[in-house]
C-alpha cells in the first residue's frame, strides 16, 4: 500500500503542476519552475525523501513539457494574428471528429499547418475552428473528416483561457478540402460508413444511436434522444469511453479463452481488436484517455488484483499528462480518472457488501459498478452543471445489457460491412433491438419528475456532494453513524417542510412577467391567461425551463419567440414545447432556421414558424407584444463576431399598468440603431446577461424602475460587468444568479418584485 500511495502522490503533483502551468500559460517561466523542482528533487534524494524527490523530478519533466508547448503556441504566427484579431486564410489538419452544437455552430478541432500572413507561413499550432450555419460559413467545415487538410478563411481570436490552443478561428465563407486523409484514416472512415449503411433500414432512433454507442458517431442522433440520454444519466453511452474498450476487449478475451487459445494468445487477439478500435474511432486524445482508463479497469477485473489497479491508474495519469499536459485541465480527463478510481476502489467492496446482504453475485456486480462510478464522478458533474441527477444508477443498471449487446454486435457489423453488406445488416439488427431498449430506458427516466436536483456549482458544490457521499456510505456501514444520519435526515426533512410551509406562495398572485433561473441563458415567461403564457427564449437546458413553467402552472404556450439562435436562448426549446402543443414559433429573420428546426424536432412538435421583424404585433389576452427590432434586411455590421447578437428580436411587452422591454443579446451597434424608438418602461430585461458591451443611453432611455439580469452563477464570462451594473444604478437590480426566479406583478397600480431562490 505504501508504494500505491507514493505513486498516487506523484500523480497528484504532476496533475496539479500541469493544471497550474497550462492555466497560467507559462512558457519560459515554466523552465524556472522545472529548475526549482529539479533542485528540490536532488535535495530530496540526498536527504532520503524518495517519494518527494520522485514527485518533484517528474513534476520538473511536466513543467518542461508545458514550457515547450506554451512557448511554441505563444510565439507563432497563429497567436500573432489572434492577438490583433486579424483575418487570414488557414490550412487545418482535422484531428478530431466534427461537432455541431445546439445553436448551429460547427466546431472543428485541428492543427494549423499554414497561415496566410507574410506571404504564407508554415506552422504546427493547435486551433479550434467555429463555423456558423446561419452565416453560411459552415460549408466545407461541416463535412471535414479526421486527417483531411481543409483550407478556409476566418477571423482569429485568442481563446478564453488560452492554454495550449493557439487561436479560435471564426470561419468566414466556405472552406475546401485541399489534402486527403491518410490511408488508415480512409479505411477507418470506410468502417464507420459501413456501420451507418448496416443500420440504414432501422427506425430513426436506433439508426442514429447505434453508431453513437459503438463508434461515438453522433451525427445521426436526434436532439430529443440526446436530451433524454443526458437527463437519464446515460449520455456517456453516446461518446467513446472506456466502457466501449472494456466491453470489446472483454468479449475478445472471453472468446479467445473459450476457444482454447490460452491467456497469452487471447491477450494478443484483444490487443488486435483494441488497435482496430483505435483506428476506427480516431486516435485523438479523448480516445487515448478513455482506452487507457478502460484497459486499467479491465486488467484489474480480469486479474482480480484491484489493489494493483491503483498504481496502474496513477502511472497512466502521469504518462498521459506528460504526453499531453492539456489533459490536466480537461473535465473529460477528470471524469475518466475519477470513474476508473471509483471502479477500482469502491465497486469491489460494494459488490461484496451487496452480495453479503443477500443479492446474487451478478446483480451485486450490476448495481455496484454504476453506483461506484456515479459516486466518484458525482462531485465533478455537480461542479460542472450545478445539479445532481438521481436517475443515473437505476438507468445504467437497466440499460447495461443493451449497452453490451449494442457495442459488440455493432462493432461486428462495422467490420463485416467491409466484406458483406448483407451479413453486416443481419448482425446489426440485434444491436438495433438492444439500442431500442436503452432508448426506452432513457425515455422512461427522462419523463419522471424530480430526478434532477439543483445543486451549488463550482468547487463548493463538489465538496458538499463529496461530503454527503462520504456521510451516506458511513451511515450504511456504521450502526451509530446510521442512527445519527437517520436523525439528521429527519431533521432536514422537518426543516425543508417548515421552509416550504412558511415560504411565499409561488407563483405570486397577479404575476405578469417571470425571468426563470436557467443558469447562463434567457428564459422569460409572459402571462396571457391562467395556465397560458408566451415564452421568450428557452434557456440552455430543457429540464430547467420546463421546471420553471411547471412551477408557474403554465399548461399551454401560445407563442414562443427565440430572439436569436444561440444555445443559451434556444437549446431548452424542447422543454417548452413538449406537452404544450399549439405554439407558434417566432424567430430572428437572420436565422437560417437550422438550429430551430432541430430543436423543434427534438420536442416532437410542429409549430408554425414565422419571422419576427420590426412592426409586427401580437395580442394575447391582456398582453400586447410589439417587435421593435430587427428591421427587415441585414443587421448592423460587426467585425467581431456579434452579428447574431445584434440581430436579436427586441420586444415591448405591455399589460394594463406594466411595460417590459426585452432586449435579447443586443450590443452597442444595434442598441444605437434603436435610439429614439424605446418608450418609457417599467422593467428592462438587460441585454446580453449584463455584458460590458452596452450603450449607456440605451439602458437609461426608457428610465426603467427595475432592471432584470438573467445570468448564471460563477459564469466564465464575468457577467454581469461592473460597468453595466453602475450604468443601471438608478433602477432596482435583480439577478437570477442571486435571486433565482424573478416575478413581476401589479396590484392597485403598484409594481411588485417577487423572487424564488
TrEMBL record:
Coiled coil: none annotated. It is found in: Cell membrane. CDD domains: ComA-like_MBL-fold (cd07731). It holds the Pfam family Competence. One of its GO terms (cellular component) is plasma membrane. Keywords: Cell membrane, Membrane, Transmembrane, Transmembrane helix. PANTHER family: DNA INTERNALIZATION/COMPETENCE PROTEIN COMEC/REC2 (PTHR30619), RECOMBINATION PROTEIN 2 (PTHR30619:SF1). This is Competence protein ComEC. InterPro entries: ComA-like_MBL, ComEC_N, Competence_DNA_uptake, Metallo-B-lactamas, RibonucZ/Hydroxyglut_hydro. It comes from the Bacteria. It is a multi-pass membrane protein. Gene3D superfamilies: Ribonuclease Z/Hydroxyacylglutathione hydrolase-like.
Amino acid at each position: 500500500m505504501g508504494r500505491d500511495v507514493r505513486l498516487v502522490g506523484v500523480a497528484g503533483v504532476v496533475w496539479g503542476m500541469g493544471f497550474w502551468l497550462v492555466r497560467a500559460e507559462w512558457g519560459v517561466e515554466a523552465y524556472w519552475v522545472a529548475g526549482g523542482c529539479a533542485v528540490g528533487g536532488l535535495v530530496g534524494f540526498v536527504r532520503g525523501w524518495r517519494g518527494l524527490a520522485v514527485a518533484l523530478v517528474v513534476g520538473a519533466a511536466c513543467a518542461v513539457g508545458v514550457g515547450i508547448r506554451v512557448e511554441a503556441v505563444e510565439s507563432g504566427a497563429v497567436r500573432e494574428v489572434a492577438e490583433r484579431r486579424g483575418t487570414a486564410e488557414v490550412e487545418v489538419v482535422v484531428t478530431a471528429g466534427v461537432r455541431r452544437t445546439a445553436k448551429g455552430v460547427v466546431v472543428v478541432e485541428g492543427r494549423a499547418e499554414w497561415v496566410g500572413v507574410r506571404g504564407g507561413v508554415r506552422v504546427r499550432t493547435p486551433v479550434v475552428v467555429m463555423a456558423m450555419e446561419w452565416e453560411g460559413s459552415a460549408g466545407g467545415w461541416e463535412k471535414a473528416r479526421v486527417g483531411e487538410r481543409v483550407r478556409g478563411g476566418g477571423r482569429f481570436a485568442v481563446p478564453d483561457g488560452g492554454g495550449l490552443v493557439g487561436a479560435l478561428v471564426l470561419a468566414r465563407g466556405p472552406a475546401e478540402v485541399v489534402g486527403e486523409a491518410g490511408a488508415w484514416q480512409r479505411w477507418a472512415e470506410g468502417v464507420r460508413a459501413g456501420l451507418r449503411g448496416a443500420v440504414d433500414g432501422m427506425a430513426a432512433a436506433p439508426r442514429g444511436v447505434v453508431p453513437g454507442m459503438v463508434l461515438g458517431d453522433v451525427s445521426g442522433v436526434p436532439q430529443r434522444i440526446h436530451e433524454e440520454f443526458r437527463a437519464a444519466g446515460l449520455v456517456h453511452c453516446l461518446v467513446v469511453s472506456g466502457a466501449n474498450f472494456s466491453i470489446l476487449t472483454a468479449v475478445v478475451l472471453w472468446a479467445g479463452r473459450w476457444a482454447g487459445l490460452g491467456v497469452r494468445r487471447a491477450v494478443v487477439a484483444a490487443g488486435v481488436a483494441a488497435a482496430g478500435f483505435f483506428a476506427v474511432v480516431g486516435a485523438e486524445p479523448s480516445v487515448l484517455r478513455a482506452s487507457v482508463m478502460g484497459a486499467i479497469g479491465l486488467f484489474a477485473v480480469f486479474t482480480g488484483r484491484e489493489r494493483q489497479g491503483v498504481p496502474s491508474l496513477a502511472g497512466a495519469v502521469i504518462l498521459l499528462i506528460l504526453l499531453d499536459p492539456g489533459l490536466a485541465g480537461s473535465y473529460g480527463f477528470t471524469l475518466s480518472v475519477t470513474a476508473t478510481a471509483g471502479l477500482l476502489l469502491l465497486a469491489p467492496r460494494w459488490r461484496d457488501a451487496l452480495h453479503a446482504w443477500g443479492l446474487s453475485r451478478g446483480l451485486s456486480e450490476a448495481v455496484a459498478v454504476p453506483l461506484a462510478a456515479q459516486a466518484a464522478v458525482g462531485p465533478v458533474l455537480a461542479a460542472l452543471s450545478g445539479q445532481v441527477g438521481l436517475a443515473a444508477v437505476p438507468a445504467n443498471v437497466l440499460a447495461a445489457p443493451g449497452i453490451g449487446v449494442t457495442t459488440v454486435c455493432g462493432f461486428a457489423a462495422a467490420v463485416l460491412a467491409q466484406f458483406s453488406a448483407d451479413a453486416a445488416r443481419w448482425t446489426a439488427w440485434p444491436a438495433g433491438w438492444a439500442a431500442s431498449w436503452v432508448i426506452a430506458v432513457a425515455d422512461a427516466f427522462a419523463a419522471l419528475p424530480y430526478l434532477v436536483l439543483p445543486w451549488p456549482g463550482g468547487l463548493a458544490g463538489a465538496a458538499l456532494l463529496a461530503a454527503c457521499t462520504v456521510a451516506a456510505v458511513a451511515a450504511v456501514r456504521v450502526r451509530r453513524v446510521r442512527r445519527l444520519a437517520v436523525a439528521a435526515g429527519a431533521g432536514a426533512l422537518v426543516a425543508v417542510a417548515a421552509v416550504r410551509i412558511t415560504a411565499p406562495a409561488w407563483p405570486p398572485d397577479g404575476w405578469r412577467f417571470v425571468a426563470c433561473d436557467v443558469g447562463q441563458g434567457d428564459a422569460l415567461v409572459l402571462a396571457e391567461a391562467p395556465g397560458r403564457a408566451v415564452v421568450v427564449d428557452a434557456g440552455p437546458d430543457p429540464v430547467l425551463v420546463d421546471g420553471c413553467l411547471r412551477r408557474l402552472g403554465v399548461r399551454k404556450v401560445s407563442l414562443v419567440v427565440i430572439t436569436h439562435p444561440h444555445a443559451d436562448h434556444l437549446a431548452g426549446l424542447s422543454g417548452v414545447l413538449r406537452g404544450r402543443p399549439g405554439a407558434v414559433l417566432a424567430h430572428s429573420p437572420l436565422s437560417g432556421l437550422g438550429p430551430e428546426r432541430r430543436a423543434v424536432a427534438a420536442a416532437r412538435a410542429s409549430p408554425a414558424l414565422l419571422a419576427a421583424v420590426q412592426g409586427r404585433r401580437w395580442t394575447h389576452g391582456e398582453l400586447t407584444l410589439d417587435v421593435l427590432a430587427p428591421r427587415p434586411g441585414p443587421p448592423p455590421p460587426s467585425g467581431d463576431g456579434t452579428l447574431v447578437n445584434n440581430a436579436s428580436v427586441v420586444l415591448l411587452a405591455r399589460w394594463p399598468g406594466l411595460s417590459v422591454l426585452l432586449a435579447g443579446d443586443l450590443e452597442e451597434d444595434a442598441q444605437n440603431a434603436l435610439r429614439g424608438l424605446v418608450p418609457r418602461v417599467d422593467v428592462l430585461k438587460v441585454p446580453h446577461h449584463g455584458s460590458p458591451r452596452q450603450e449607456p443611453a440605451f439602458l437609461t432611455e426608457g428610465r426603467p424602475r427595475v432592471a432584470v439580469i438573467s445570468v448564471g452563477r460563477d459564469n466564465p464570462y464575468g457577467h454581469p460587468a461592473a460597468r453595466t451594473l453602475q450604468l443601471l444604478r438608478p433602477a432596482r437590480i435583480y439577478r437570477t444568479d442571486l435571486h433565482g426566479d424573478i416575478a413581476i406583478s401589479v396590484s392597485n397600480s403598484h409594481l411588485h418584485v417577487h423572487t424564488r431562490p
